[in-house]
Write a structure and sequence with these properties.
single chain; about 250 residues; Rossmann fold; binds adenosine-5'-triphosphate; binds magnesium ion
């Protein structure tokens, strides 16, 4: 089966005066339709860099990113915005709901960009709110909800365009552990229903909730495999330098 997301030797360089930071260093992986993958790594390992490329917010400096077989590096800003709207649903740590709109209107926003008519928009937004158990709160504004409910609303918004990939960036970062678990359980339900989910996190205990882990260190992939394999657990740098298990 063709990969939905394919990184081929992707590099990202940032130029700072005379020096160059290598934020992504020849990263290659493939993600197929229906997978639930966590991209995990400590601060500065390159997670946001990968997220921005996967989400078509940025393009590689070198290498190739194919999204559903299409070469994203070749696209201009308009085309990037178009493919983003068509193929991706975003979930952010800070929800990013619009404060003046009620939940139903918030969930409708991606469909407005896609030019879907009002009646159809309402119907699909309501259906999406039902998926996350918030249909009775559709009239509420975001500030009338708990953090967990706001995150569920943002998941409804991510789902409404029926995206090929759901991209979640630290989705539990602003939540307490119990509410965070509920949000993770919802992502697992979406995966079980056939959705492709890519979760970005610095937290191993969250990453292991996915089916597969891609671990980054200094812009490189140091592990790519099942989340329940013993090697999926981090081996501290110091232990490795002393000849501990190699990755
Ligand atoms: N716009 C930029 N200009 C210069 N350097 C950058 C830029 N963005 C990221 N970097 C550098 O690239 C490397 C990877 O950064 P990135 O933001 O991808 O890490 P991260 O894994 O998301 O970290 P965190 O967990 O702290 O969010 C870091 O060394 C960072 O300092
Ligand atoms: Mg980051």
């Amino acid at each position: 089966m063709r990969a939905l997301i394919e990184f081929q030797q992707v590099c990202k360089y940032y130029h700072m005066g005379d020096s160059t930071v290598t934020a992504a260093d020849h990263i290659s992986f493939q993600i197929s339709k229906g997978e639930f993958v966590a991209i995990v790594g400590s601060s500065g390992s390159g997670k946001s860099t990968c997220m921005n490329i996967i989400g078509c917010l940025d393009v590689p400096s070198e290498g190739t990113y194919l999204l559903d077989g299409r070469d994203v590096g070749e696209m201009n800003k308009n085309k990037l915005a178009e493919i983003r709207n068509e193929l991706l649903g975003f979930i952010f740590q800070q929800y990013n709901l619009l404060p003046k709109l009620n939940l139903l209107e918030n969930v409708e926003v991606p469909l407005m960009y896609a030019g879907v008519g009002k009646a159809e928009r309402r119907r699909r937004a309501m259906e999406s709110l039902e998926r996350v158990g918030l249909e009775d709160k559709w009239k509420h504004r975001p500030n009338q909800l708990s953090g967990g409910q706001q995150q569920r609303a943002s998941i409804a918004r991510a789902l409404v365009g029926r995206p090929a990939v759901i991209l979640a960036d630290e989705p539990t970062g602003a939540l307490d552990s119990r509410t965070g678990r509920e949000v993770l359980a919802l992502l697992q339900d979406l995966h079980a229903a056939g959705n492709t989910v890519v979760l970005i996190t610095h937290d191993n205990s969250i990453a292991v909730q996915a089916q597969r882990i891609i671990r980054l260190e200094d812009g490189r992939v140091v592990y790519d495999g099942p989340s329940d394999a013993p090697e999926a657990v981090v081996i501290p740098r110091a232990a490795r330098a002393k000849g501990g298990a190699a990755l």
